[in-house]
Specification:
Elements: H1 2-9, H2 12-34, H3 42-64, H4 72-96, H5 115-118, H6 120-123, E1 134-136, E2 139-140, H7 141-163
Antiparallel strand pairs: 1-2
Helix pairs in contact: 1-7, 2-3, 3-4, 4-7
Length: 171
């Protein structure tokens, strides 16, 4: 098992898996928006931005896999997963009522990064926060994200640490 983790920490397969997962997550969000009519709230848009971020980091990691500083990709992915974990906590807290926040229909993004205006079909806010749709077995999207992102954070940190012990000849 350890040898598999070492292999994955230096392998392009890991980054391809992250890209596929990210595209899948974004697709689920867009299906819920456009086919099931659940408009995204500001926190949902933050999650979409974070997912797009780790997909971009994964693409760059595939390109720099042979360079000496490629391990930074694991650290960047972990940082994004930490932020996504915080956003998932806020989303679940808003849904359950243990976090009170001003969550209107403003994206809350800085003026220098108006991605909601650049790509409103994907990153435009349509509703205020308060609930997330049910996915399966009565699990809400916020509950699923609260499990998913901390798990991905731990995996990213593990890959970062293990990459230092992996063979110097990475794939």
């Amino acid at each position: 098992m350890i040898s598999l983790i070492k292999f994955l920490s230096t392998s392009a397969w890991y980054w391809w898996l992250l890209i596929l997962a990210g595209v899948g997550f974004e697709s689920v969000g867009l299906i819920y928006q456009y086919m099931l009519d659940y408009g995204p709230c500001p926190l949902c848009i933050h999650v979409r931005i974070g997912i797009a971020g780790f997909v971009l980091v994964s693409i760059v990691a595939l390109l720099v896999n042979r360079l000496a500083w490629w391990r930074i990709s694991h650290l960047l992915t972990a940082a994004i997963m930490a932020w996504l974990s915080e956003r998932a906590y806020m989303l679940l807290g808003t849904e359950r009522g243990f976090v009170y926040t001003e969550c209107g229909v403003d994206s809350g993004l800085p003026s220098w990064f108006p991605i909601d205006q650049w790509l409103p079909a994907v990153f435009g806010v349509l509703e205020s926060c308060g609930y997330t749709p049910k996915l399966f077995f009565g699990i809400s999207m916020a509950e699923a994200l609260m499990v998913l992102f901390p798990t991905m954070l731990l995996i990213s940190l593990m890959m970062f640490v293990v990459s230092f012990f992996a063979s110097s000849q990475h794939r």
